[in-house]
Amino acid sequence: MRDTTVNQVPEACAKLYRSGLAAMEMNKVDPAIVSFYTALEIEPGFTACREALRSAQGKAAEKKIGFWKRLFRKERLSPSLAEAEVLLHLQPLKAMSIAERVLNQEPGNIAAHRLVAKAALALELPRTALLSLDKLADEHPDHRALKLAMGDALTKSGDLSAAAALYGRLLKDNPRDGTVLRALRKLPARFVEEQANNLATGGSFAPIPATPRQNEPVPAAGDDDAIINRFEPLLEHGPRNTKILKTLAEAYARKMLFDKSLSYYRRALSIEGGEDEAIKKAISETTLKKIDAELALLDQKAPDYAERREKIENRRLEFQWQEMETIH
């Protein structure tokens, strides 16, 4: 599936879209919503039509007496959204359609926007996903996983300049954010250089590490071995020392021994009562590094390469979805 323009959709779909626009000009919002929604049932990737539907939904809500009451209940998960959540992994298109029906009645429903975004990402409709991701970002401007999802969608939609700018802003907060650096590495060099120049006045720009080639051995990290040999014995005397646990987790992550790294991070998080945001962020980054490393080590000549790659990419997407679930 792909995002489409008015010149790429079937004539019946384009006709419904034009009919909806005409109804909007006459301030007939409800018929416009019906036209736009029906067109999207035919062509879910019709981005301009979904944008028009969002506008119509907003205008319809302004006219309804109970709008402000619904606005304050915008996080709630209705029975239909619960059904859509169940369908998301097996039938993302149907899940998106159900969530869109909820938005016809409650355009500010954050749970519905989250489902639309997740379904659109699963269907590889990045521009459609961005319409709802933008809404989620307005509600949660500091949510890192959401910003990463937006950067990925911008990249896939071809808006590379916007993606690079978003990653650049994230690097200002943390110049050594490994997940952001890997995402930037996928962009053309000119966009990366542009962000490096932008950061020059506001902080250091960490160089993007080179990606190891297929089956290329990772250089030994003597310093990390020394750290591990020094600090692991200390755990016998201080098993709840989170500083030691985090130091060991970082060392194992640099050695690409991700399972060991994650075990130390999780021990530290448990000791902190599960509330340390820095450790949670480190667990998220290390998990993504582990998945990316598995992907890089696949043998492209193997007969099952495509199947194994798809499984790993789906696992990565599921993890990103779980990260988005932390939005409240």
Short description:
With 328 residues, the chain is mostly helical. The chain contains 17 helices and no strands.
Record the SSE blueprint.
Layout: H1 11-25, H2 29-42, H3 47-63, H4 67-71, H5 79-87, H6 92-105, H7 110-122, H8 126-139, H9 144-157, H10 160-173, H11 178-185, H12 189-199, H13 222-231, H14 242-254, H15 258-271, H16 277-296, H17 305-324
Give structural notes:
- It is elongated and about 75 Å long.
- The protein has 3 domains: about 10-140, Serine Threonine Protein Phosphatase 5, Tetratricopeptide repeat (Alpha Horseshoe), CATH 1.25.40; about 160-200, no CATH class; about 220-295, Serine Threonine Protein Phosphatase 5, Tetratricopeptide repeat (Alpha Horseshoe).
- The longest helix has 20 residues, at about 275-295.
- With about 325 residues, it is an all-alpha fold.
- It contains 17 helices and no strands.
Number of helices: 17
Amino- and carboxy-terminal Cα gap: 30 Å
What portion of residues belong to β-strands?
A: under 5%
CATH architecture level-2 label of the largest domain = Alpha Horseshoe
CATH class of the largest domain: Mainly Alpha
What is the strand tally?
0
